[in-house]
Specification:
Layout: H1 2-20, H2 26-46, H3 49-66, H4 76-97
Helix pairs in contact: 1-2, 2-3, 2-4, 3-4
């Protein structure tokens, strides 16, 4: 199990580096590795499948914009999932404030 987590994180780390260099194909790697987890995390916070899909799209836009700020060699998986969580929580705050 540990080697699976290491390879997942390594793949995402590499993909973020490629994304920061402008390689948009790297998004496919991140989507394949974490897309389901991003969706399920957003769904668990929002309790709305359509909202969770929106958050997933926003997450990929955000990591595309911010890939250059990611520090290579740190926990890429946590960085991406934290982005998704923060976007989800912001969405909940906006819904509540309406």
């Amino acid at each position: 199990m540990l080697s699976t987590k290491v390879s997942l994180n390594s793949a995402c780390d590499s993909a973020l580096g490629r994304l920061a260099s402008g390689d948009m194909d790297a998004l496919e790697i991140i989507y394949d590795k974490l897309g389901r987890r991003i969706f399920l995390m957003a769904l668990s916070i929002l309790r709305d499948p359509h909202g969770a899909e929106d958050i997933m799209q926003q997450t990929f836009l955000k990591i595309t914009e911010a890939a250059g700020a990611y520090t290579k060699g740190t926990n890429a998986t946590a960085w991406i999932l934290t982005t998704a969580r923060n976007l989800s929580l912001t969405s909940v705050k906006l819904i509540i404030s309406r």
